[in-house]
Each structure stands twice: as C-alpha cells, then as structure tokens.
Amino acid sequence: MNFKIRVFESTDQPHLDRIRRLQLTASIPRQRLAELTQSQQIERMENWYNEKVVFLQNVPISRTYVAVDEQDQPIGYVIVIAEAKDDFRPERQGFLCDLAVEEDYWGEAVASALIQAAEDYVKRMGHEFMMLNVSSYNQRAINFYHKLGYSNEWIMMGKRLPLENTLKNLDEELN
After folding, report:
1. Domain 4-174: CATH architecture, name and number where available
2. Where do runs of H (alpha helix) occur along the chain?
3. Would you tell me which of 15, 57, 59, 137 could form a disulfide with 74, CB atoms 3.0–4.6 Å apart?
4. What is the mean pLDDT of the chain?
C-alpha cells in the first residue's frame, strides 16, 4: 500500500472530519458521559473535537500532517504543537494533539509515519521531548504508543461524585 505524508491543505478538512468521526468512540470519557446515550456521547465528543481542532489549526506553532493515498485522498492525520509548556523543565516540548487513521489502513504503518512527521517537526523546532494524551479505554492506541517508545508519565483519574444533599450540607457547613 502506497501513501505519502504531506502538510494539511484546507481542502482536506472534510476528509479529516470524517476520519475523526469514525474514531470518536475509542476516546469517549465513559465515566463522565455515562448518563448519555452513545449517540449523545458521540455528539458531545464531536463538539469538543470541532472546537479543539479549529483552535489548534489556527495556532501558528501547530502543524497538521495528512497521510494520503495514491489518489491524494486523506487516509489519516496528526496534529502537533511544537511549543507546549513543560511543567518541569524550562524548555518547551512538542505535544501530539490528535492522531486518526482510517480503519482500513490500520497496520499499514500510516500512523507510524504520521508520528514520525510530527516528531521531525518538533525536532526541527529545537525540542527533544514530545508528550501526548490517550484515553485509558483505547488500549490499541496505548500499545501503539508504547511500541514507538512512549511511556506512561501521568495517569489522569476521575470519579463521579453523588450530588444528593450537597446544597443542604454546604448550608450546614457555612452556618
């Protein structure tokens, strides 16, 4: 299977939106959206992604790379920021914001090539470290990132808190 990696063009956006929609269920924060139906969860994720992608694509230090097939049709993409703040070091770092590949192309090295393009951009910007977030429910992606040499540095945890009697308890606490 032949493909190439190139920089995002505005005509790619509808294709990237379609690819992203197909991948949404792998990243749903299930605990936080448990009360919603699957279609409502997907709608919530779609709204979140649309805001995120529009914002990121307008950040001057971000790049979107697109994998295209022989007909120049997008089959995957990666969005990376090169100047993310590192909480523990004075240097800036890269941050991989989003990665998606059409399922028909999984296992064809498309995602690896997209990650390599993102890493090369971050290195060209003079940074030697790149971070990313991945849903704890997306084991396939976690295994993929580990295979590429990424390691767990943080685990973000969540817990649903019951709200019954909250206002009553707060009133008692304040009095």
Report:
1. 3-Layer(aba) Sandwich (3.40)
2. 13-23, 38-57, 110-124, 139-147, 166-174
3. 15
4. 86
